[in-house]
Design goal:
It is built from 18 helices and 17 strands. By secondary structure, the chain is α+β, with helices and mostly antiparallel strands.
């Protein structure tokens, strides 16, 4: 054995290295342990700083039973009982337990008041014990379960005054009660720094709730006016989201339900279930019902039904299970919504892509509070208002997508409802609309004492175009004539397609003798103009018959019938293209005048 050790010096070197590493690790561990057990230094509130974190400056102890009194906790002086509070404080506490913190403040006179701040609104209870001498402790309380009359101030998260003694150092104790682990930075802040941060928070909250209220009004008004269900559901979703944000940030505890501590405790959970249940119904109604994703959409409805049931039962769920159950539900429901919108986008729904992008911030808004509730420490500026920032970022996108979808639906309904009044090939009005508008024009002419024109236009050479230009889509000729007539008419005039080769034109008055004389030739000349993409000869020769109203008649049905008889009697190869009813144009116009 000795020879083997001598013959293998590498093993000896390896063993020596291992022993050295183990020794260094033990030494480092002992140093860290000694440093961790060291007593926290007293705090000097007379320094130039306006705020300071208690991390590294305070110690903590977990009361497993949760029933210890401050007199008992004050006697726990051994280093084995108290542990240092880290800078990145994760308060690992379960339902029924309590976390006690201890810190010491040096004696002195301070110019401005100091406060102990915990920037985490959903904590159940935070109590600050201040020694007043002879074993007597003054307590101030804040938190969700603290009634209004027991609060020192109505701040949206726990904020308690720290009274500094001018004569002797004071040791303060803080008791935290929460049904679940959470991460937050407990800090001492001076009044001026508190007011500065409070002003920024008020500005942020005002902008958030202002934009939310405006979006609710817009979505609700448009949804009711257009009878659009997704917009109506979006307004409800925004309302629930605003209430949830107010409950999570502590604003609701101050302004909405200050006298209901029990409801204030379970409101964030209950409202969050309602928000994600409404989100599932919203995505289900906004996504086009493509057959390939019907089953997935049914899962969304099932998830929404489960969320509604959980919202009703949240008050009876044990407090330590609420966060875990809510987190699992929110993740599953958000994943389902993302999956449905992505599948719908792949199947051709043009609006689902925008919904998918808008739901991504919701996923972040779910993950960050869950991570904080599990004890993961994140930047305070990011986490304190993460739910507000990420949820409000989706509002403009979703509102724009739903408004575009609603407008498209409205346009489609208009097109479907107007199929019996508009020609599908040319977009012109049909004969019933022409007769209705013509009757109104006749009534206006009689009321104001001026004249109007009613014209019928027939395509005389349609058969020849179909015969001679078969390879150049001759059936396109009526569409081209319709475009020429629409370009010739004014905004107040009416152009209609009365049959396959016949069009009608209503020219509103007052009409002068020159207008009457030139209107028919202008129609003929406009139709005779060649088309750039058609061969020579591919032009429309039209016959025009017109009547002067109210001189030639006041019954539109009769006028159209008489003009039709005039055009039927005109040969297709007639050199004359413009025809009138009865006497000459000059005689009729002078008589009408």
């Amino acid at each position: 054995m000795q020879n083997a050790g001598i013959m293998n010096p590498g093993n000896n070197a390896l063993n020596i290295t291992r022993r050295i590493c183990v020794g260094l690790a033990l030494l480092l561990g002992s140093l860290i342990g000694f440093q961790g057990r060291a007593a926290a230094l007293p705090l000097n509130l007379n320094s130039q700083t306006s705020e300071m974190s208690l991390g590294g400056l305070a110690t903590q102890w977990v009361d497993e039973q949760g029933n210890a009194q401050v007199q008992d906790v004050a006697r726990l002086d051994g280093p084995a009982s108290w542990e240092p509070l880290n800078d990145l404080a994760a308060f690992r506490v379960r339902d029924g337990q309590a976390v006690w913190l201890r810190f010491e403040v040096l004696a002195g006179r301070v110019d401005k008041p100091w406060f102990l701040e915990l920037p985490y609104a959903p904590v159940d209870e935070m109590t600050l014990y201040t020694p007043t001498g002879q074993g007597v402790w003054a307590e101030t309380r804040a938190g969700d379960r603290v009634a209004t009359e027991q609060r020192v101030n109505n701040f949206h998260h726990p904020l308690l005054p720290v009274v500094v003694s001018p004569d002797a150092n004071r040791v303060f104790f803080v008791q935290l009660k929460s049904p679940h682990t959470f991460a937050a930075t407990l800090r001492l802040v001076r009044q001026d720094a508190l007011l500065a941060s409070y002003t920024g928070s008020i500005l942020l909250l005002g902008g958030y709730f202002g934009l939310l209220l405006l979006s609710i009004i817009v979505a609700g008004t448009l949804g009711c006016a257009r009878r659009d269900r997704p917009l109506q559901l979006f307004a409800v979703y925004l309302l629930l989201m605003g209430l949830t944000g107010a409950a999570l940030d502590g604003v609701a505890r101050v302004y909405l339900w200050p006298t209901w501590p029990s409801w204030n405790d379970c409101a964030p959970t209950t409202l969050a279930y309602a928000v994600f249940a409404c989100l599932g119904v919203l995505v289900h109604s906004a996504v086009v019902g493509i057959p390939q994703i019907v089953r997935v959409r049914r899962l969304l409805l099932a998830g929404s039904a489960l969320g509604s049931a959980m919202a009703l039962a949240a008050a009876w769920v044990p407090a330590h299970l609420r966060i875990e159950l809510l987190g699992c539900y929110m993740l599953v429901q958000t994943a389902l919504c993302l999956w449905v919108t992505l599948r719908a986008r792949q199947r051709g729904d043009v609006h689902s892509g925008g919904l998918f992008l808008a739901l991504l911030p919701v996923l972040l808004a779910v993950l960050l509070p869950m991570a904080r509730a599990m004890g993961v420490h994140l930047p305070a500026t990011l986490v304190d208002h993460s739910v507000l920032l990420f949820t409000i970022s989706q509002v403009p996108v979703v509102l724009l997508v739903l408004m575009r979808r609603s407008q498209q639906r409205l346009n489609q309904q208009g097109r479907l409802s107007g199929l019996d009044r508009v020609d599908a090939a040319t977009g012109l009005a049909l004969e019933p609309v022409f007769l209705e508008r013509g009757a109104r024009m006749v009534a206006r002419c009689q009321r104001f004492g001026h004249q109007g024109l009613v014209l019928l236009v027939d395509i005389a050479n349609a058969d020849r175009i179909e015969r001679d230009f078969e390879q150049h889509r001759p059936n396109e000729l009526p569409v081209r004539v319709a475009a020429r007539l629409a370009a010739l008419a004014r905004e107040v005039d009416v152009v209609a397609r009365l049959s396959g080769r016949r069009f009608g034109l209503l020219v509103e008055g007052p009409i002068s003798e020159t207008d009457e004389a030139t209107m028919g030739p202008r129609v003929v000349a406009s139709c005779l103009m060649p088309f750039a993409d058609k061969p020579e000869g591919w032009v429309a020769r039209v016959h025009v018959a017109y009547a002067l109203v109210p001189f030639d008649g006041t019954d539109m049905q009769e006028l159209v019938q008489r003009l039709s008889e005039v055009l039927q009697g005109v040969p297709a190869d007639s050199a004359k293209a413009v025809f009138t009813l009865g006497p000459s144009r000059e005689t009729r116009f002078r008589a009408a005048a």
